[in-house]
Specification:
Number of strands: 13
Largest sheet: 12 strands, antiparallel, barrel
CATH architecture of the largest domain: Beta Barrel
Structural class: alpha+beta
Number of domains: 2
Helix content: 10-25%
Number of helices: 1
């Protein structure tokens, strides 16, 4: 092989190597740009509002009274990655505004997280009468959900702990247990419990039975049967 031929071959190999390096750099940049684009798309996928379980109930109590209850569970993705949630139970008896009662919890946390600060607000027909500040723990499980809130009044003289457990029981049945314990300085703890069994009878419609107990007293408990529109 002559010297001239060897130079041509060497020059060709050098050009090929430079070409490969030139191609490799843009390819790496393309991969990085694509990854950033996918991350941006992933962030944009988070909806502004994430609805949880929301339902409007109509029931008859063992005291022969009509009970209407609205359950709300919503999360708002306002500033990534923080979301604001609202969980509420607002009800009235015999459709009278004078019999209104509601407990609503406003909480915040990192999207996908389990723990965050919370405010528990209680109201009746006269307006707000109790506000406690604390935290909320929430965990989803296969076929169910668990959450716990704990709060204390600003003066430190009262607090509460609330636990909710909902579980899919199969064949269209869904069970719920709600337990609230009020703690007041100088008084004994006050316990309020709800045990509810739901049965899906049509798409977005459930029938249910519920026991409402004070101090775990079954004899003096209030019992309901009704229908719920889920949305």
């Amino acid at each position: 092989m002559g010297k001239t031929t060897q130079k041509i071959i060497n020059t060709g190999l050098a050009l090929m190597m430079v070409g490969n390096l030139a191609v490799a750099k843009p390819n790496k940049q393309v991969v990085e740009d694509k990854k950033q684009q996918e991350e941006t798309i992933e962030v944009e996928k988070a909806p502004l509002v994430e609805p949880g379980f929301n339902a409007l109930e109509a029931a008859v109590t063992s005291e022969i009274a009509a009970r209407t209850r609205l359950q709300t569970n919503l999360k708002f993705n306002l500033v990534d990655p923080i979301n604001i949630g609202v969980s509420g139970m607002n009800e009235t008896t015999n459709l009278s505004k004078d019999n209104y009662f509601g407990i609503n919890t406003i909480f915040a946390g990192k999207r996908g997280g389990k723990i965050g600060p919370a405010a528990i607000i209680t109201a009746d027909s006269q307006g707000l009468f109790d506000v406690k500040y604390g935290g909320r723990y929430q965990s989803e499980m296969p076929g169910g959900e668990l959450w716990i809130t704990a709060g204390i009044k600003p003066d430190g003289k009262a607090g509460n702990i609330t636990t909710y457990l909902g579980k899919d029981l199969g064949k269209g049945f869904f069970g719920e247990v709600y337990q609230n314990t009020e703690l007041t300085k100088g008084d004994k703890p006050f316990h309020y419990t709800e045990i509810q069994l739901n049965k899906e009878v049509a798409k977005k419609f459930n029938v249910f039975v519920r026991a409402e107990l004070e101090k775990f007293n079954l004899k003096e408990g209030r019992y309901l049967v009704g229908i719920a529109k889920v949305f």
